[in-house]
Write a structure and sequence with these properties.
Elements lengths: L4 E5 L3 H12 L4 E5 L2 H10 L4 E5 L7 H11 L4 E6 L4 H9 L4 E4 L4 H31 L10 H14 L5 E4 L6 H10 L8 E5 L5 H9 E2 L11 E2 L1 H4 L4 E5 L6 H13 L1 E2 L8 E2 L3 E6 L3 H6 L5 H7 L2 E4 L10 H15 L6 E2 L1 H9 L5 H15 L4 E2 L14 H4 L8 H19 L4 H8 L3 H10 L4
Parallel strand pairs: 1-2, 1-3, 3-4, 4-5, 6-13, 6-14, 7-10, 10-13, 15-16
Antiparallel strand pairs: 8-9, 11-12
C-alpha cells in the first residue's frame, strides 16, 4: 500500500509542529495548515488520505471543515482534536462523518492507535474494491451490495480464503447471503472454471439426503429405477456448497466425514469406492456447538468443516446497507415489471429503516418486489408495504404477564408462533422443521392439522 498522507490542521504553532514532527518520523506523508480554509485549499490540490484537525479554530472550525471535506470526498477520514471533549461535541462530530475524535492534551500513543485503525480500514476498503472488481469481471454479481465495515471484513476474508482449497464454514441467519459468499469464494479461486454445485439439505426429506450427496445404484432402494451420481461426483474438480449442513442426520454425517477426510465416496447400493477431488464450503444457521453437546452433530465433522469460519451479520446489524439494497431492488423490480418507480416516500423509507428483518436480505427483497407490483404512483408509499401499524392479534396471548386469556389459549398461541417461526426458517420444509423441533414429521403434521394451520 502507498504511503499514507495526513493533513494536520491546528492554529497553535507548537502543537502543529509537535504532531507533524511525530507523524513524519513514523513515515507518514505530512501536510500542515493553520485553519480550515487553508486546509481545504491544500486538500483540493493534493492527495490526502487522513485529516487530523483541531476543533476550535478561527475562520472554519473543525466541524465546518469536516462537513466540507465529506462533501468534497467522503473517502477522506477526519479525526478531530478537541480540548473540550463534551459528549455533545463528540456525538455531533461522529454524526457528521468523523472517523473518531481525540481530546487534548494529545496522547501520542492513542493517536498512533487511531491512525493504525484508519490504515487497516483503508486497506480493507481497497481490497474490497479489488474483490468487487474481480467479481464483476468474472460474472455478474450485483447482489453483493454493501458499504458496512462488517461486510467489508467478510469480503476481505473471502478473497483470502479463495486462494486456498481449505474447507470453509459460512454461518449466519437465513437470508443473509451465505450462498452468495460461497459463490464469490469459488469464482475467485483457482477452481473458478470447474463446477460449482449446490445442495440444500433443508429442502430434502431425510431419506433423500444420502442419495443426493453420494448417489445410488439402480434397485438400491424403492424408487431407484436407475443409477444416479451424487453431488460429490458432480462437483469433482470444483466446489461443493452444502447449505444447511446442520440438518444432516448423524448416520449420514459419518459418511460425509469420510468423504472429506479421504476424498472418497460410495453410492448407495455399491461396494465400489470412487475418488473425488472436491473443495467443501458448508453453511448453517444453527448452533453447531450446542448440537455437539446434544450429540446430534459430530465433533470430528465440525472440526473438519470449521477450518475457516465466516460469520455473516444479520441485516439488523448492518442497517447502513438498507438504503442501497432498497435502491437496487427497486430498480430491478421496476424494470422487471415495466413500472416507472423513482423510489420510496420519506414515510415508507422510515418504516423500512425501523424494521428488523427476521428474514434478512431475502425478506427485504420480497417486500420491495411486492411494493413495486402494488404501487400506483412513481413512489412506493407506506400503504404499499406489508407492515401493519396495529399489534399482531396474538401479542397479548404471547405475553406471560398478561393473564386475560386462559392457559389453553396461551399455550395454543405460543405453539402456533413457534411453528410459524420454524417453518419460515426452513422455507416451509416440514421434514427439516420437524428435525429442528426434535419431533417426527408425522407429529408435526398432526399439530398443524389440529391447530388449523396451512
Amino acid at each position: 500500500m502507498k504511503k499514507i498522507s495526513i493533513l494536520v490542521v491546528d492554529d497553535e504553532q507548537a502543537q502543529l509542529q509537535s504532531i507533524s514532527g511525530f507523524l513524519s518520523r513514523r513515515d507518514y506523508g505530512i501536510f500542515t495548515a493553520e485553519n480550515g480554509k487553508e486546509a481545504f485549499e491544500i486538500l483540493k490540490n493534493n492527495l490526502v488520505d487522513i485529516i487530523l484537525t483541531d476543533y476550535r479554530m478561527p475562520e472554519w472550525d473543525g466541524l465546518q471543515l469536516l462537513k466540507n471535506v465529506k462533501q468534497f470526498n467522503p473517502e477522506i477520514e477526519v479525526i478531530v482534536m478537541t480540548a473540550f471533549g463534551s459528549i455533545e461535541d463528540a456525538v455531533t462530530l461522529l454524526k457528521e462523518g468523523a472517523y473518531d475524535y481525540i481530546t487534548k492534551p494529545i496522547e501520542l500513543d492513542e493517536l498512533e492507535s487511531i491512525l493504525s485503525r484508519v490504515k487497516e480500514r483503508k486497506e480493507l476498503i481497497r481490497e474490497n474494491k479489488i474483490l468487487k472488481q474481480q467479481l464483476a469481471e468474472k460474472f455478474e454479481y450485483d447482489e453483493i451490495i454493501t458499504q458496512s465495515s462488517k461486510m467489508e471484513d467478510i469480503l476481505n476474508t473471502s478473497a483470502r480464503v479463495a486462494n486456498s482449497k481449505a474447507t470453509c464454514l459460512i454461518r449466519g441467519e437465513s437470508g443473509t447471503g451465505k450462498e452468495l459468499i460461497a459463490k464469490a469464494i469459488h469464482h475467485l479461486s483457482p477452481l473458478k472454471d470447474k463446477p460449482f454445485v449446490v445442495v440444500n439439505i433443508a429442502s430434502l426429506s431425510e431419506n433423500l439426503i444420502e442419495s443426493e450427496l453420494f448417489g445410488h445404484e439402480k434397485g438400491s432402494f424403492t424408487g431407484a429405477i436407475t443409477h444416479r451420481i451424487g453431488r460429490f461426483e458432480e462437483a469433482d474438480g470444483g466446489t461443493l456448497f452444502i447449505d444447511e449442513i446442520g440438518e444432516i442426520p448423524p448416520y449420514i454425517q459419518v459418511k460425509l466425514l469420510r468423504a472429506i477426510q479421504f476424498n472418497e465416496v460410495q453410492r448407495i447400493g455399491s461396494n465400489k469406492t470412487l475418488k473425488v477431488d472436491v473443495r467443501i464450503i458448508a453453511a448453517t444457521n444453527r448452533n453447531l456447538e450446542e448440537m455437539i453437546k446434544q450429540k446430534i452433530f459430530r465433533e470430528d465433522l465440525y472440526y473438519r468443516l470449521n477450518v475457516v469460519t465466516i460469520n455473516l451479520p444479520p441485516l439488523r446489524e448492518r442497517k447502513e446497507d438498507i438504503p442501497k439494497l432498497i435502491e437496487t431492488f427497486t430498480k430491478k423490480y421496476a424494470i422487471k415489471n415495466g413500472k416507472d418507480i423513482l423510489g420510496l416516500t420519506k414515510e415508507a423509507m422510515d418504516k423500512m429503516m425501523k424494521y428488523d428483518y427476521p428474514g434478512n436480505i431475502r425478506e427485504l427483497q420480497n417486500i420491495i418486489e411486492r411494493a413495486v407490483i402494488l404501487s400506483r404512483t412513481e413512489y412506493i408509499i407506506e400503504e404499499d408495504l406489508p407492515f401493519k401499524s396495529e399489534k399482531r392479534v396474538s401479542s397479548d396471548l404471547l405475553d406471560p404477564l398478561l393473564l386475560e386469556h386462559n392457559y389453553k389459549e396461551k399455550m395454543k398461541a405460543f405453539e402456533k408462533e413457534m411453528l410459524v417461526k420454524v417453518l419460515e426458517q426452513t422455507n416451509g420444509n416440514k421434514s427439516a422443521a420437524a428435525r429442528l423441533l426434535g419431533i417426527t414429521e408425522r407429529h408435526l403434521r398432526s399439530r398443524l392439522q389440529i391447530l388449523n394451520m396451512k
